[in-house]
Amino acid sequence: MGQSLSQLYVHLTFGTKERHPFISEHIEHQLHSYIAGILKNNESPALKINSVPDHVHILFRLSKNYALAKVVEEVKKQSSKWLKEHGVTGFTWQIGYGAFSVSSSRVTVVKKYIIDQKQHHKTKTYKEEVEEFIKEYDIIEYDEKYFWR
């Protein structure tokens, strides 16, 4: 019998549409737990989730059985529905997302980065943050007029 092995860590980030501050402190922990459940159901366990009012960061291990785009689609679709059911009127996520590979040796560093989001965003916007990732990962297909929808 054959065996397939995989250990792919992903740092995923996406924002609310037009950066509206929909994610309040009173709902964020429940949202994080709900997203962790979605990921678990997609065989992609969350290692760390945190958010600020206009975006979320997630570090997870991608399942060998699911494509990244499908996992992200499920997270965004189901969490959007959950937020609306919990009274967040007019809520929607941005269309795009950023997903960045993380080596096993950097998992602890990325966890800390995600934990420190509230402190981090006292001095830096989400757009500045994402554009730093784009430079760091040498992403050439970035077009801000489409990404920030």
Question: What this model shows, in words?
Answer:
This protein is globular. The chain contains six helices and four strands; from the N terminus they run βαββαβαααα. It is of the alpha+beta class. The longest helix is centred in the middle third of the chain and has 18 residues.
Provide a concise account of the structure shown.
The protein has helices at residues 25-41, 68-85, 107-115, 117-120, 126-136, 144-147; strands at 8-15, 46-52, 55-62, 98-102. The protein has 149 residues and is of the alpha+beta class. It has one domain: Alpha-Beta Plaits (2-Layer Sandwich).
Observed structural traits:
globular; 6 helices; alpha+beta; Alpha-Beta Plaits
CATH topology: Alpha-Beta Plaits
The number of helices is 6
Average of pLDDT = 95
Order of helices and strands: EHEEHEHHHH
**What spatial form do the alpha-carbon principal axes imply?**
globular
- By CATH, the superfamily comes out as Transposase IS200-like
| Low-pLDDT windows of residues | none
Question: Tally of extended strands?
Answer: 4
What Rg do the Cα atoms give?
15 Å
- Strand pairing plus helix content: what structural class? alpha+beta
What is the rounded distance between the termini?
46 Å
Strand content: 15-25%
Q: Architecture in CATH?
A: 2-Layer Sandwich
